[in-house]
Amino acid sequence: MLTTNGIQQATEAVEQAKKKVNNRHRLGYHIMAPANWINDPNGLVQFKGEYHVFYQHHPYDENWGPMHWGHVKSLDLVNWEHLPIALAPEDACDKDGCFSGSAVDNDGELTLIYTGHHYIDKERDLFYQNQNIAVSTDGVHFKKVVENPVIEKPPADSSHHFRDPKVWKRGRDWYMIVGNSKNNIGRVILYRSPNLRNWEYIGVLAEGNEQLGYMWECPDFFELNGKHVLLMSPQGIKEAGDHFKNLFQTGYMIGEYEYDKNKFGHGEFIELDYGHDFYAVQTFLDDKNRRIAIGWMDMWESDMPTKKDGWCGALTLPRELTLSADGKIKMVPVAEVTQLREKKLSAIENQTITSSYEMGVQGSMFEVEAVLEVTNAEKVELVLRGIENEATVLAYDKSTNKLRVDCSKSGKKKDGIRRVKLAASDQLKLRIFVDRSSIEVFINEGEATMTSRIYPTEPYRSVEFTSCSGKSLLKKATCWKLKDIWNEK
């Protein structure tokens, strides 16, 4: 059974660490730990009317280390409250880390399903992994069950990669998928259980090839608009033009699934976000029947300057997923984020732009919503301008139908540009969220998204719209100051 020493020590460590945090890049309305390192979102669930989000957390250092589960909750997906650390690696089932997983409401018992990590030789990165559960009735304090590990080892044809369980219920049965690898090929494997304790191996739900990476992390499987969706985060996909530019990717396959045959017929792998910092996304279904996703807003082996400030890592805004007519996932911020709007900073309608037009901002936490008619312009830009040469640039090229985000002058010293191709159109709709050290861009009502960490030295001073080689029409643009949910506590 779970002891409490590890939880208490970790909680006390975070309390001490947050006193030393430099707040210059701290986010105002995103989920992050009070101090030190976080990565993957875990255990997204609605329990007793409240939204719960857990996350991979190292409470003793700003770098990755033995993984704990940090924990926040909210009534509205906007105003979050830190709760005590939920899981600590202190038992035989998880001695070197409580890795990623999921959460379910089992008739009033909140159940966390997670991977236990065990090093055989840490210097050589030799390890084994198993699957475990912990339970709670109050949604705050958790006990690991005596049956752990509930799945002791992967199937015989598997590599040692065996992690990130996602669990859901269908009828009377529970199902679990786990990220896995065979012969250096990523795959997702499936289990079934009547009670969350005893699991039967069903087989391989989906498998890749040499082009789709050596391991599929953080899988998720759900129905969306009558189709089945497999989300996963492959490791080892090679860069291809504007695609797969990050070290690791997050994307999806859509198709039809037959439970009785464990047969998933699906289409190609499609990237889910085209920015620099989006990984390990997880989803859940809320009581409004919305499929909501949250991702880790950072990337392995990228520049992480906030480590010098005593913290590292954040999660994205919650996003609602829908399926477009052409069979692709669309993501938009959940409707509740409008509660963040504190003050309207600027607004304009029907402004013709022959060269440039500037809106005042003066801030580091704001939202911009803009609609541009680009019928007579070859290129348009939206530039967030800061002091001296600092800027974050969004540029649309009508000849290629590509939108570019350029963060090279706002903290991305290496590889600062990302591009995404859009459907041909004479209209460009943008919804942009800036939160001190992050930018999330939602394009054409969810057709594409671009998420990146940025590190300007001072607040932005203006939003500049520029039209190149012709004139464009700024049909509408509004900028709101957004509130800081953490400073209000």
Automatic annotation (TrEMBL):
SMART domains: Glyco_32. InterPro entries: ConA-like_dom_sf (IPR013320), GH32_Enzymes (IPR051214), Glyco_hydro_32 (IPR001362), Glyco_hydro_32_C (IPR013189), Glyco_hydro_32_N (IPR013148), Glyco_hydro_beta-prop_sf (IPR023296), Suc6P_hydrolase (IPR006232). SUPFAM superfamilies: Arabinanase/levansucrase/invertase, Concanavalin A-like lectins/glucanases. It is found in: Cytoplasm. Pathway: Glycan biosynthesis; sucrose metabolism. Residues 30-330 form the Glycosyl hydrolase family 32 N-terminal domain. Enables the bacterium to metabolize sucrose as a sole carbon source. This is Sucrose-6-phosphate hydrolase. It comes from Priestia flexa.
